[in-house]
Amino acid sequence: MFLGIDCGTQGTKALLLDAVSGQVLGQGSASHDLISGPNGRREQHVEQWTSAFEAATAAALADAGVPGDQVLGIGVSGQQHGLVALDREGQVLRPAKLWCDTESAQENQRLLQWLGGERGSLERLGVVIAPGYTVSKLLWMKEQHSQLFERIAHILLPHDYLNYWLTGRCCSEYGDASGTGYFDVRSRRWDLEMLRHIDPNGRLGAALPELIGPDEAVGTLRPELALRLGLNPNVIVSSGGGDNMMGAIGTGNIQPGAITMSLGTSGTLYAFTGEPQISPQPAVATFCSSSGGWLPLICTMNLTNANAAIRDLLELDLQQFNDFVVQSPIGAEGVTLLPFLNGERVPALPQATASLHGLTTDNLTRANLCRAVLEGVTLGLRYGLDLLRESGVRSERIQLIGGGAKNPQWRQIVADMMATPVVCTSHNEAAALGGAIQAAWCHARQSDPQASLVELCDRCVSLDESTAVEPEPNAVKSYEQVYRRYQALVIATYGQRTPPDQTTVTP
Fold first, then answer.
1. How is residue 92 annotated by DSSP?
2. Residue of 297, 284, 291, 358 whose CA lies nearest to 328
3. In Å, what is the CA distance from 87 to each residue of 20, 33, 148?
4. Which candidate in 160, 243, 386, 416 is catalytic?
5. Which of 434, 459, 441, 461 is nearest to 76 (CA)?
6. Count of CB atoms situated within 10 Å of the CB of 357
7. What digits encode the pLDDT tens for the residues 486-495?
8. Catalytic (active site) residue 191
9. What is the pTM of this model?
10. How many CB atoms lie within 10 A of CB 193?
Protein backbone atom coordinates (compact mmCIF):
# COMPACT_ATOMS: atom_id res chain seq x y z
CA MET A 1 0.00 0.00 0.00
CA PHE A 2 1.14 3.53 -0.77
CA LEU A 3 0.01 6.86 0.64
CA GLY A 4 -0.51 9.85 -1.67
CA ILE A 5 -0.74 13.33 -0.14
CA ASP A 6 -1.96 16.47 -1.89
CA CYS A 7 -1.32 19.68 0.06
CA GLY A 8 -3.33 22.35 -1.76
CA THR A 9 -4.51 25.87 -1.11
CA GLN A 10 -7.79 24.93 0.55
CA GLY A 11 -6.73 21.74 2.30
CA THR A 12 -4.78 18.49 2.38
CA LYS A 13 -6.07 15.25 0.92
CA ALA A 14 -4.73 11.77 1.60
CA LEU A 15 -5.32 8.65 -0.47
CA LEU A 16 -4.34 5.04 0.21
CA LEU A 17 -3.56 2.96 -2.90
CA ASP A 18 -3.14 -0.77 -3.39
CA ALA A 19 -0.62 -0.67 -6.23
CA VAL A 20 -1.08 -4.37 -7.03
CA SER A 21 -4.82 -4.22 -7.68
CA GLY A 22 -4.85 -0.53 -8.63
CA GLN A 23 -7.66 0.08 -6.15
CA VAL A 24 -8.01 3.13 -3.90
CA LEU A 25 -8.68 1.74 -0.43
CA GLY A 26 -9.36 4.88 1.58
CA GLN A 27 -9.34 8.68 1.52
CA GLY A 28 -9.24 11.52 4.03
CA SER A 29 -8.98 15.30 4.10
CA ALA A 30 -8.45 18.32 6.35
CA SER A 31 -8.83 22.03 5.56
CA HIS A 32 -6.44 25.02 5.60
CA ASP A 33 -7.04 28.71 6.24
CA LEU A 34 -5.75 31.44 3.94
CA ILE A 35 -4.10 34.68 5.08
CA SER A 36 -5.28 37.42 2.72
CA GLY A 37 -4.13 41.01 2.73
CA PRO A 38 -3.73 44.13 0.60
CA ASN A 39 -1.80 44.17 -2.67
CA GLY A 40 -2.58 40.53 -3.41
CA ARG A 41 -1.09 38.94 -0.29
CA ARG A 42 -1.92 35.22 -0.03
CA GLU A 43 -0.06 33.27 2.65
CA GLN A 44 -0.42 30.25 4.94
CA HIS A 45 1.11 28.99 8.17
CA VAL A 46 3.01 25.78 7.42
CA GLU A 47 1.87 24.31 10.73
CA GLN A 48 -1.55 23.98 9.11
CA TRP A 49 -0.04 21.76 6.44
CA THR A 50 1.57 19.38 8.91
CA SER A 51 -1.52 19.23 11.13
CA ALA A 52 -3.71 18.60 8.09
CA PHE A 53 -1.26 15.93 6.89
CA GLU A 54 -1.69 14.03 10.17
CA ALA A 55 -5.48 14.41 10.21
CA ALA A 56 -5.96 13.44 6.56
CA THR A 57 -3.64 10.44 6.89
CA ALA A 58 -5.47 9.16 9.96
CA ALA A 59 -8.80 9.57 8.15
CA ALA A 60 -7.55 7.69 5.07
CA LEU A 61 -6.25 4.79 7.17
CA ALA A 62 -9.53 4.65 9.11
CA ASP A 63 -11.51 4.75 5.86
CA ALA A 64 -9.47 1.84 4.49
CA GLY A 65 -9.66 -0.08 7.76
CA VAL A 66 -6.03 -1.16 7.54
CA PRO A 67 -3.07 -0.67 9.87
CA GLY A 68 -0.51 1.97 8.98
CA ASP A 69 2.41 -0.44 9.24
CA GLN A 70 1.38 -1.88 5.86
CA VAL A 71 2.20 1.40 4.08
CA LEU A 72 5.44 1.05 2.07
CA GLY A 73 5.81 4.54 0.64
CA ILE A 74 4.55 8.14 0.66
CA GLY A 75 4.41 10.55 -2.27
CA VAL A 76 3.70 14.23 -1.60
CA SER A 77 2.06 16.65 -4.03
CA GLY A 78 2.19 20.34 -3.16
CA GLN A 79 0.94 23.67 -4.48
CA GLN A 80 3.65 25.09 -6.72
CA HIS A 81 5.74 28.28 -6.50
CA GLY A 82 5.35 28.90 -2.74
CA LEU A 83 8.24 30.15 -0.60
CA VAL A 84 9.09 28.44 2.70
CA ALA A 85 12.22 29.97 4.24
CA LEU A 86 14.00 28.22 7.13
CA ASP A 87 16.83 29.31 9.42
CA ARG A 88 19.85 27.16 10.37
CA GLU A 89 17.83 25.36 13.04
CA GLY A 90 15.15 24.44 10.54
CA GLN A 91 12.64 26.90 11.93
CA VAL A 92 10.20 28.60 9.55
CA LEU A 93 10.97 32.31 9.36
CA ARG A 94 7.54 33.60 8.30
CA PRO A 95 4.26 32.37 6.76
CA ALA A 96 4.67 30.77 3.34
CA LYS A 97 3.85 32.99 0.38
CA LEU A 98 1.66 31.01 -2.03
CA TRP A 99 1.34 30.56 -5.79
CA CYS A 100 -1.63 32.93 -5.86
CA ASP A 101 0.22 35.73 -4.02
CA THR A 102 0.74 38.73 -6.31
CA GLU A 103 2.25 41.07 -3.72
CA SER A 104 5.63 40.70 -5.43
CA ALA A 105 4.38 41.74 -8.89
CA GLN A 106 6.64 44.82 -8.99
CA GLU A 107 9.66 42.77 -7.91
CA ASN A 108 8.87 40.26 -10.64
CA GLN A 109 8.73 43.03 -13.24
CA ARG A 110 12.15 44.31 -12.19
CA LEU A 111 13.62 40.82 -12.37
CA LEU A 112 12.02 40.31 -15.78
CA GLN A 113 13.61 43.54 -17.02
CA TRP A 114 17.02 42.35 -15.75
CA LEU A 115 16.55 39.12 -17.71
CA GLY A 116 15.88 41.09 -20.89
CA GLY A 117 12.11 40.84 -20.86
CA GLU A 118 10.00 37.85 -21.79
CA ARG A 119 12.34 36.84 -24.61
CA GLY A 120 15.37 36.96 -22.34
CA SER A 121 13.61 34.91 -19.66
CA LEU A 122 12.60 32.26 -22.22
CA GLU A 123 16.12 32.04 -23.62
CA ARG A 124 17.74 31.77 -20.20
CA LEU A 125 15.29 29.67 -18.18
CA GLY A 126 12.90 28.16 -20.75
CA VAL A 127 9.98 29.88 -18.99
CA VAL A 128 8.84 33.46 -18.49
CA ILE A 129 8.84 34.29 -14.79
CA ALA A 130 5.48 35.42 -13.43
CA PRO A 131 4.51 37.19 -10.16
CA GLY A 132 3.48 33.88 -8.58
CA TYR A 133 6.94 32.34 -9.05
CA THR A 134 9.24 31.87 -6.07
CA VAL A 135 12.06 34.14 -7.26
CA SER A 136 10.13 37.41 -6.90
CA LYS A 137 9.05 36.34 -3.40
CA LEU A 138 12.71 36.15 -2.39
CA LEU A 139 13.39 39.68 -3.63
CA TRP A 140 10.21 40.86 -1.89
CA MET A 141 11.34 39.25 1.37
CA LYS A 142 14.78 40.89 1.09
CA GLU A 143 13.21 44.32 0.71
CA GLN A 144 10.27 43.97 3.09
CA HIS A 145 11.73 41.71 5.82
CA SER A 146 15.47 42.27 5.56
CA GLN A 147 16.36 40.89 9.01
CA LEU A 148 14.48 37.65 8.39
CA PHE A 149 15.99 37.46 4.91
CA GLU A 150 19.50 37.53 6.38
CA ARG A 151 18.65 34.43 8.44
CA ILE A 152 17.64 32.27 5.46
CA ALA A 153 19.53 28.97 5.46
CA HIS A 154 17.10 26.81 3.45
CA ILE A 155 14.78 27.77 0.58
CA LEU A 156 12.00 25.24 0.05
CA LEU A 157 8.81 24.85 -1.94
CA PRO A 158 5.68 23.64 -0.10
CA HIS A 159 6.10 19.99 -1.09
CA ASP A 160 9.85 20.22 -0.34
CA TYR A 161 8.99 21.44 3.15
CA LEU A 162 6.65 18.53 3.81
CA ASN A 163 9.34 16.10 2.64
CA TYR A 164 11.78 17.85 4.99
CA TRP A 165 9.28 17.52 7.84
CA LEU A 166 8.88 13.81 7.05
CA THR A 167 12.55 12.91 6.62
CA GLY A 168 14.78 15.76 7.81
CA ARG A 169 16.36 16.08 4.33
CA CYS A 170 16.14 19.15 2.06
CA CYS A 171 15.55 18.06 -1.54
CA SER A 172 13.68 19.29 -4.57
CA GLU A 173 12.46 17.53 -7.72
CA TYR A 174 12.80 18.86 -11.28
CA GLY A 175 9.08 19.39 -11.93
CA ASP A 176 8.35 21.56 -8.91
CA ALA A 177 11.72 23.30 -9.22
CA SER A 178 10.68 24.41 -12.73
CA GLY A 179 8.30 26.97 -11.23
CA THR A 180 10.81 28.76 -9.02
CA GLY A 181 12.21 31.20 -11.62
CA TYR A 182 15.82 30.22 -10.80
CA PHE A 183 15.85 26.86 -12.61
CA ASP A 184 16.74 26.05 -16.23
CA VAL A 185 14.10 23.61 -17.47
CA ARG A 186 16.26 22.48 -20.42
CA SER A 187 19.35 21.44 -18.43
CA ARG A 188 17.42 20.71 -15.18
CA ARG A 189 19.84 22.80 -13.12
CA TRP A 190 19.56 25.69 -10.68
CA ASP A 191 20.43 29.10 -12.15
CA LEU A 192 22.68 30.37 -9.38
CA GLU A 193 23.45 33.64 -11.17
CA MET A 194 19.76 34.53 -10.96
CA LEU A 195 19.95 34.30 -7.17
CA ARG A 196 23.28 36.19 -7.04
CA HIS A 197 21.48 39.07 -8.74
CA ILE A 198 19.21 39.21 -5.68
CA ASP A 199 21.95 38.58 -3.12
CA PRO A 200 25.50 38.92 -4.55
CA ASN A 201 27.25 37.04 -1.74
CA GLY A 202 25.97 33.67 -3.01
CA ARG A 203 24.21 32.79 0.24
CA LEU A 204 20.90 32.03 -1.49
CA GLY A 205 22.52 29.50 -3.80
CA ALA A 206 23.94 27.69 -0.78
CA ALA A 207 20.41 27.59 0.71
CA LEU A 208 18.93 25.68 -2.23
CA PRO A 209 17.89 22.06 -1.72
CA GLU A 210 19.58 19.16 -3.49
CA LEU A 211 17.96 18.26 -6.81
CA ILE A 212 16.85 14.64 -7.26
CA GLY A 213 15.08 12.74 -10.03
CA PRO A 214 11.38 11.82 -9.95
CA ASP A 215 12.09 8.12 -9.29
CA GLU A 216 14.40 8.77 -6.32
CA ALA A 217 13.57 8.55 -2.63
CA VAL A 218 14.16 11.49 -0.32
CA GLY A 219 14.60 9.08 2.57
CA THR A 220 12.62 7.27 5.24
CA LEU A 221 10.33 8.67 7.91
CA ARG A 222 11.80 10.20 11.03
CA PRO A 223 11.24 7.56 13.76
CA GLU A 224 9.30 9.85 16.09
CA LEU A 225 7.01 10.92 13.25
CA ALA A 226 6.43 7.34 12.12
CA LEU A 227 5.29 6.55 15.65
CA ARG A 228 2.98 9.57 15.77
CA LEU A 229 1.45 8.83 12.38
CA GLY A 230 1.13 5.12 13.10
CA LEU A 231 3.15 4.22 10.00
CA ASN A 232 5.87 1.73 9.20
CA PRO A 233 9.20 3.32 10.30
CA ASN A 234 10.83 1.97 7.13
CA VAL A 235 8.35 3.66 4.80
CA ILE A 236 10.12 5.55 1.99
CA VAL A 237 9.26 9.10 0.95
CA SER A 238 9.48 9.57 -2.81
CA SER A 239 10.63 12.76 -4.48
CA GLY A 240 7.02 13.95 -4.85
CA GLY A 241 6.38 17.05 -6.92
CA GLY A 242 4.14 19.98 -7.73
CA ASP A 243 0.39 19.44 -7.82
CA ASN A 244 0.23 19.69 -11.60
CA MET A 245 3.06 17.20 -12.06
CA MET A 246 1.43 14.74 -9.66
CA GLY A 247 -1.93 15.37 -11.32
CA ALA A 248 -0.37 14.39 -14.63
CA ILE A 249 0.76 11.06 -13.19
CA GLY A 250 -2.64 10.60 -11.54
CA THR A 251 -4.38 10.98 -14.90
CA GLY A 252 -1.89 8.83 -16.82
CA ASN A 253 -0.64 11.92 -18.67
CA ILE A 254 2.92 10.62 -18.99
CA GLN A 255 3.07 10.03 -22.76
CA PRO A 256 2.34 12.29 -25.75
CA GLY A 257 -1.31 12.57 -26.79
CA ALA A 258 -3.04 13.21 -23.47
CA ILE A 259 -4.20 16.57 -22.14
CA THR A 260 -5.43 17.23 -18.60
CA MET A 261 -7.61 20.13 -17.43
CA SER A 262 -7.96 20.81 -13.72
CA LEU A 263 -10.98 22.74 -12.43
CA GLY A 264 -9.83 23.68 -8.94
CA THR A 265 -9.05 26.89 -7.07
CA SER A 266 -6.93 27.64 -10.11
CA GLY A 267 -7.45 26.33 -13.62
CA THR A 268 -4.68 24.39 -15.33
CA LEU A 269 -4.12 22.70 -18.66
CA TYR A 270 -1.11 20.52 -19.40
CA ALA A 271 0.23 17.88 -21.76
CA PHE A 272 3.32 15.64 -21.94
CA THR A 273 6.31 15.94 -24.26
CA GLY A 274 9.48 13.89 -24.35
CA GLU A 275 11.64 16.91 -25.20
CA PRO A 276 11.79 20.49 -23.85
CA GLN A 277 9.79 22.08 -26.66
CA ILE A 278 9.90 25.68 -25.43
CA SER A 279 6.88 27.62 -26.63
CA PRO A 280 7.40 31.15 -27.96
CA GLN A 281 4.17 32.06 -26.13
CA PRO A 282 5.19 33.58 -22.75
CA ALA A 283 2.05 32.23 -21.01
CA VAL A 284 2.97 28.60 -21.78
CA ALA A 285 5.29 27.26 -19.08
CA THR A 286 7.28 24.27 -20.30
CA PHE A 287 7.93 22.78 -16.88
CA CYS A 288 9.68 19.47 -16.32
CA SER A 289 7.31 16.63 -15.53
CA SER A 290 7.65 14.33 -12.50
CA SER A 291 7.74 11.33 -14.80
CA GLY A 292 10.94 12.01 -16.73
CA GLY A 293 9.76 14.35 -19.51
CA TRP A 294 8.33 17.86 -19.81
CA LEU A 295 4.88 19.29 -19.13
CA PRO A 296 3.80 22.31 -21.25
CA LEU A 297 1.29 24.06 -19.00
CA ILE A 298 -0.90 27.11 -18.63
CA CYS A 299 -2.47 28.21 -15.35
CA THR A 300 -5.27 30.67 -14.61
CA MET A 301 -5.45 32.13 -11.13
CA ASN A 302 -9.23 32.42 -10.89
CA LEU A 303 -11.60 29.48 -11.17
CA THR A 304 -13.68 27.96 -8.38
CA ASN A 305 -12.73 30.89 -6.14
CA ALA A 306 -14.58 33.23 -8.53
CA ASN A 307 -17.59 30.90 -8.63
CA ALA A 308 -17.61 30.83 -4.83
CA ALA A 309 -17.46 34.63 -4.66
CA ILE A 310 -20.65 34.94 -6.74
CA ARG A 311 -22.34 32.19 -4.72
CA ASP A 312 -21.49 34.00 -1.50
CA LEU A 313 -22.67 37.33 -2.90
CA LEU A 314 -26.02 35.87 -3.94
CA GLU A 315 -26.23 33.64 -0.85
CA LEU A 316 -26.62 30.45 -2.87
CA ASP A 317 -25.60 26.91 -2.07
CA LEU A 318 -23.91 24.85 -4.77
CA GLN A 319 -27.12 23.23 -6.02
CA GLN A 320 -28.91 26.56 -6.28
CA PHE A 321 -25.95 28.01 -8.18
CA ASN A 322 -25.97 25.09 -10.64
CA ASP A 323 -29.74 25.41 -11.11
CA PHE A 324 -29.36 29.08 -12.03
CA VAL A 325 -26.59 28.24 -14.53
CA VAL A 326 -28.98 25.90 -16.34
CA GLN A 327 -31.69 28.59 -16.47
CA SER A 328 -29.44 31.06 -18.32
CA PRO A 329 -28.66 30.57 -22.04
CA ILE A 330 -25.19 30.36 -23.61
CA GLY A 331 -23.63 33.82 -23.36
CA ALA A 332 -25.77 34.77 -20.33
CA GLU A 333 -27.92 37.12 -22.46
CA GLY A 334 -24.92 39.39 -23.11
CA VAL A 335 -23.51 39.47 -19.56
CA THR A 336 -19.75 38.88 -19.46
CA LEU A 337 -17.62 38.62 -16.33
CA LEU A 338 -13.86 39.08 -16.54
CA PRO A 339 -13.19 37.13 -13.33
CA PHE A 340 -9.75 38.46 -12.41
CA LEU A 341 -10.40 38.72 -8.66
CA ASN A 342 -6.80 37.78 -7.78
CA GLY A 343 -5.23 39.44 -10.79
CA GLU A 344 -4.51 36.95 -13.56
CA ARG A 345 -1.65 34.92 -14.94
CA VAL A 346 -3.28 33.77 -18.21
CA PRO A 347 -3.91 36.32 -19.67
CA ALA A 348 -0.89 37.98 -18.03
CA LEU A 349 -2.68 40.66 -16.00
CA PRO A 350 -1.30 40.44 -12.43
CA GLN A 351 -2.74 43.81 -11.34
CA ALA A 352 -6.14 43.35 -12.97
CA THR A 353 -9.43 43.40 -11.10
CA ALA A 354 -12.68 41.66 -11.98
CA SER A 355 -15.34 43.47 -13.98
CA LEU A 356 -18.89 42.90 -15.26
CA HIS A 357 -19.90 43.96 -18.75
CA GLY A 358 -23.08 44.14 -20.80
CA LEU A 359 -25.56 44.65 -17.96
CA THR A 360 -29.03 46.02 -18.70
CA THR A 361 -32.25 46.18 -16.72
CA ASP A 362 -33.44 43.16 -18.68
CA ASN A 363 -30.47 40.82 -18.25
CA LEU A 364 -29.42 41.63 -14.68
CA THR A 365 -30.60 38.36 -13.13
CA ARG A 366 -29.11 35.88 -10.70
CA ALA A 367 -29.17 33.21 -13.39
CA ASN A 368 -27.14 35.33 -15.80
CA LEU A 369 -24.61 36.27 -13.11
CA CYS A 370 -24.11 32.59 -12.25
CA ARG A 371 -23.74 31.63 -15.90
CA ALA A 372 -21.42 34.56 -16.58
CA VAL A 373 -18.92 33.62 -13.88
CA LEU A 374 -18.83 29.97 -14.93
CA GLU A 375 -18.33 30.97 -18.55
CA GLY A 376 -15.84 33.70 -17.65
CA VAL A 377 -13.43 31.38 -15.85
CA THR A 378 -13.75 28.76 -18.60
CA LEU A 379 -13.00 31.32 -21.31
CA GLY A 380 -9.58 31.83 -19.72
CA LEU A 381 -8.93 28.12 -20.09
CA ARG A 382 -10.11 28.27 -23.71
CA TYR A 383 -7.50 30.96 -24.32
CA GLY A 384 -4.91 28.72 -22.67
CA LEU A 385 -5.91 25.75 -24.82
CA ASP A 386 -5.47 27.91 -27.93
CA LEU A 387 -1.93 28.71 -26.76
CA LEU A 388 -1.10 25.03 -26.24
CA ARG A 389 -2.51 24.18 -29.65
CA GLU A 390 -0.41 26.91 -31.24
CA SER A 391 2.58 25.23 -29.55
CA GLY A 392 1.80 21.93 -31.27
CA VAL A 393 -0.14 20.14 -28.52
CA ARG A 394 -2.88 17.90 -29.89
CA SER A 395 -5.44 15.72 -28.15
CA GLU A 396 -8.64 14.04 -29.19
CA ARG A 397 -10.02 14.17 -25.64
CA ILE A 398 -9.64 16.30 -22.51
CA GLN A 399 -9.37 14.54 -19.15
CA LEU A 400 -11.00 16.63 -16.41
CA ILE A 401 -10.01 16.61 -12.75
CA GLY A 402 -10.63 18.87 -9.75
CA GLY A 403 -13.74 19.73 -7.78
CA GLY A 404 -15.40 21.50 -10.71
CA ALA A 405 -15.21 18.35 -12.82
CA LYS A 406 -18.00 16.83 -10.73
CA ASN A 407 -20.47 19.34 -12.21
CA PRO A 408 -22.08 17.82 -15.38
CA GLN A 409 -23.18 21.27 -16.61
CA TRP A 410 -19.63 22.56 -16.39
CA ARG A 411 -18.33 19.49 -18.22
CA GLN A 412 -20.67 20.26 -21.09
CA ILE A 413 -19.62 23.92 -21.15
CA VAL A 414 -15.96 22.83 -21.34
CA ALA A 415 -16.67 20.39 -24.19
CA ASP A 416 -18.63 23.01 -26.15
CA MET A 417 -16.22 25.88 -25.54
CA MET A 418 -13.15 23.77 -26.38
CA ALA A 419 -14.89 21.90 -29.24
CA THR A 420 -13.39 18.72 -27.80
CA PRO A 421 -14.85 15.64 -26.06
CA VAL A 422 -14.41 15.59 -22.28
CA VAL A 423 -14.20 12.77 -19.71
CA CYS A 424 -13.34 12.56 -16.00
CA THR A 425 -10.94 10.12 -14.43
CA SER A 426 -12.43 7.56 -12.04
CA HIS A 427 -10.55 9.06 -9.09
CA ASN A 428 -11.02 12.81 -8.91
CA GLU A 429 -8.13 13.41 -6.49
CA ALA A 430 -5.58 13.03 -9.26
CA ALA A 431 -2.68 14.76 -7.47
CA ALA A 432 -2.95 12.54 -4.39
CA LEU A 433 -3.30 9.48 -6.62
CA GLY A 434 -0.26 10.60 -8.60
CA GLY A 435 1.73 10.90 -5.39
CA ALA A 436 0.81 7.36 -4.39
CA ILE A 437 1.65 6.00 -7.86
CA GLN A 438 5.01 7.80 -7.86
CA ALA A 439 5.78 6.37 -4.41
CA ALA A 440 5.00 2.87 -5.72
CA TRP A 441 7.26 3.51 -8.73
CA CYS A 442 10.07 4.75 -6.50
CA HIS A 443 9.70 1.73 -4.21
CA ALA A 444 9.71 -0.69 -7.15
CA ARG A 445 12.81 0.91 -8.69
CA GLN A 446 14.81 0.13 -5.54
CA SER A 447 14.72 -3.58 -6.41
CA ASP A 448 14.07 -3.33 -10.17
CA PRO A 449 15.68 -0.35 -11.94
CA GLN A 450 13.53 -1.08 -14.99
CA ALA A 451 10.19 -0.87 -13.14
CA SER A 452 7.71 0.91 -15.42
CA LEU A 453 5.67 3.96 -14.46
CA VAL A 454 3.54 3.35 -17.57
CA GLU A 455 2.50 -0.08 -16.29
CA LEU A 456 1.61 1.36 -12.88
CA CYS A 457 -0.52 4.10 -14.45
CA ASP A 458 -2.24 1.55 -16.71
CA ARG A 459 -3.17 -0.43 -13.61
CA CYS A 460 -4.10 2.42 -11.27
CA VAL A 461 -5.63 5.11 -13.54
CA SER A 462 -8.96 4.67 -15.30
CA LEU A 463 -11.57 6.85 -16.97
CA ASP A 464 -15.19 7.17 -15.84
CA GLU A 465 -17.01 6.82 -19.14
CA SER A 466 -20.32 7.70 -17.47
CA THR A 467 -19.00 11.30 -17.28
CA ALA A 468 -18.06 11.53 -20.97
CA VAL A 469 -19.66 14.33 -22.99
CA GLU A 470 -19.37 15.35 -26.64
CA PRO A 471 -19.42 18.94 -27.91
CA GLU A 472 -22.75 20.02 -29.37
CA PRO A 473 -22.23 21.67 -32.81
CA ASN A 474 -24.71 24.51 -32.28
CA ALA A 475 -23.27 25.26 -28.85
CA VAL A 476 -19.74 25.27 -30.30
CA LYS A 477 -20.79 27.95 -32.80
CA SER A 478 -22.48 30.01 -30.09
CA TYR A 479 -19.41 29.89 -27.87
CA GLU A 480 -17.25 31.19 -30.70
CA GLN A 481 -19.31 34.40 -30.53
CA VAL A 482 -18.96 34.49 -26.74
CA TYR A 483 -15.21 33.97 -27.02
CA ARG A 484 -14.82 36.83 -29.52
CA ARG A 485 -16.77 39.07 -27.13
CA TYR A 486 -14.41 38.03 -24.33
CA GLN A 487 -11.37 38.85 -26.49
CA ALA A 488 -12.73 42.27 -27.37
CA LEU A 489 -13.49 43.10 -23.73
CA VAL A 490 -10.00 42.13 -22.56
CA ILE A 491 -8.53 44.37 -25.25
CA ALA A 492 -10.87 47.26 -24.45
CA THR A 493 -10.52 46.97 -20.67
CA TYR A 494 -6.78 46.39 -20.39
CA GLY A 495 -5.53 47.98 -23.60
CA GLN A 496 -3.71 44.98 -24.94
CA ARG A 497 -4.34 42.15 -27.35
CA THR A 498 -3.72 39.35 -24.90
CA PRO A 499 -5.84 36.40 -26.09
CA PRO A 500 -4.92 34.89 -29.45
CA ASP A 501 -6.91 36.37 -32.34
CA GLN A 502 -8.58 33.16 -33.37
CA THR A 503 -12.07 32.81 -34.77
CA THR A 504 -12.44 29.04 -35.00
CA VAL A 505 -11.37 26.12 -32.89
CA THR A 506 -9.34 23.28 -34.39
CA PRO A 507 -8.97 20.41 -31.89
1. B
2. 358
3. 42, 24, 9
4. 243
5. 434
6. 17
7. 999 999 998 7
8. no
9. 0.89
10. 11
